[in-house]
Amino acid sequence: MQYGPAVRRRRLGAELRVLRTRSALTSIEAAHRVGWHQSKVSRIETGASGVKPADVRKLLDAYGVDDTELRELLLALAGSEDGGGRHNWWHAYRGVLPPTYRDFISLESQAGGMRTLETSVVPGLLQIPEYARAVTRAAVEGLEDDKLDALVEVRLARQEVLRGNPPLKLSAVLDEGVLRREVGGPEIMARQLDRLVEAARLPQVRLQVLPFTAGAHIGVTGPFVIFSFRSTSDLDVVVLDHLTSSLYLERKEDLKAYVEAFNALQIHALSPEDSLDYIAGLAAGA
């Protein structure tokens, strides 16, 4: 079992390798100290294998790392932030979920906040079952019914993060096209708009509509997601989705650029109050 997304495993492994080197230990010596085989240390350091938070603590103790902030950061990389009792629930769906989607769900389950620009469809965390089914069927042609059912189940299970303790804080900018595209037909779309109205009233959800009248804007390059974490901003990551893969950006300059882009989009979008009225108006007329 792999703990956390691949991008996190690689970074964690690199950090642990640096700490081992600083402690003047070979991988064989480090493995001996914690009672492992040398190959396990090597797999962890290369990101080829996941690692439990308890194992990270063993290595940090062996390397004499007592910096509290550094220890918390590395434990967060191992996935220890998930305190909701649902850690790695998505592994039950490994047969139908591609690795990049599992990585995305892992980040989402551990994040404290999520900022997203959506230009085509309603964010997955706010989709009703019928809308989720229609979107998934359109995105993956020829999907068998049982796999379609499983993917919809996953989409709905992900929404539990909004009801966690504490809940994920979701801030979404929706292009007007998201609201006007009839996914699944008019009846399903009407219920989906009603769901957005309900969500917009939740304290942990902030929705803003980017109207067509805003013209060209920085978001025309495509949708993106910014995950932020409670323990430290050093874990923040941007996710860009492509047709067959996802790209994870963690460099500070990339994060800065996307945060500034999102802030600019919020300025050009309708206020949360006006957005709620706008969505409610569309729902009433749907």
TrEMBL record:
Gene3D superfamilies: lambda repressor-like DNA-binding domains (1.10.260.40). It comes from the Bacteria. Residues 16-70 form the HTH cro/C1-type domain. SMART domains: HTH_XRE. Pfam families: DUF5753, HTH_31. This is Helix-turn-helix transcriptional regulator. It comes from Streptomyces gottesmaniae.
